[in-house]
Amino acid sequence: MTIRADNRVAITWAGDHRFDAGRPGGPQVRIDASAQTGPGPVDALLIGLGCCTGVDVVDILAKRRTPVASLGIEVQGERRQEVPRRVTKAHLVYRIDGEGIEREHAERAVELAVTKYCSVKDSLDPATPVTWSVVLNGA
C-alpha cells in the first residue's frame, strides 16, 4: 500500500505547551495546550471538524444558487474522563443566514457535509457520534 503525502505540516515548539504549526512556507497557527495564546490540540481538532463541514455547507448552498450571507458553527465536544481523554462525541450547531435558503436545503447541505464530504469527520473513530442542528435565519 502506497501512502500519498497529501498534507504535510511542520510543527515548531514555541516554549511551554505552545507550538506553531502549518504547511512549510505557509501561514502558521499557534496551538497552546494551556489555551493562553491559542486553542489547545483538542480544540484544534473540533475547529477542524467545524471548518471542514462549513466549507461544504457554503459550497452546497452556493451550487443551489442560494448563497450563504453568514455562517457560524459552534462545536461541542464531549471527552472521556480517563486518559487518554479522547473525544467521545461531538455536536455541531450551524447558524446559517441567507436570503432564499429553505430549511430543507440547509439541513440537507449540513447532512451531506457531515456524513459524506468531511474528511476530518471521517478521520475520527467511526464509533464517535457526530450530531448537528441548524438555526436558519435566526429560527
Query: In whole angstroms, how far apart are the ends?
Result: 48 Å
Shape: globular
Total E-strand runs: 6
User: Any idea what the radius of gyration is?
Assistant: 17 Å
Range of helix content? 25-40%
Fourth CATH level, the homologous superfamily of the largest domain:
K homology (KH) domain
Folded structure, characterized:
With 139 residues, the protein is of the alpha+beta class. The chain folds into two domains: 1-38, no CATH class; 41-136, K homology (KH) domain (GMP Synthetase, Chain A, domain 3, 2-Layer Sandwich). The chain has three helices and six strands; from the N terminus they run βββαββααβ. It has helices spanning 41-63, 103-117, 119-123, and strands at 10-13, 18-22, 29-32, 70-79, 87-97, 130-136. A three-stranded antiparallel beta sheet has the order 1-2-3, with no helix packed on it. Strands 4-5-6 form a three-stranded mixed beta sheet, covered by helices on one side. A hairpin with a 7-residue loop joins strand 4 and strand 5. Helix 1 packs across helix 2. It is globular. 16% of the residues are buried. The mean pLDDT is 95.
Give the key terms.
139 residues; alpha+beta; GMP Synthetase, Chain A, domain 3; 2 domains; 3-stranded mixed sheet; 3 helices
Describe the structure concisely for a colleague.
The protein has helices at 41-63, 103-117, 119-123, and strands at 10-13, 18-22, 29-32, 70-79, 87-97, 130-136.
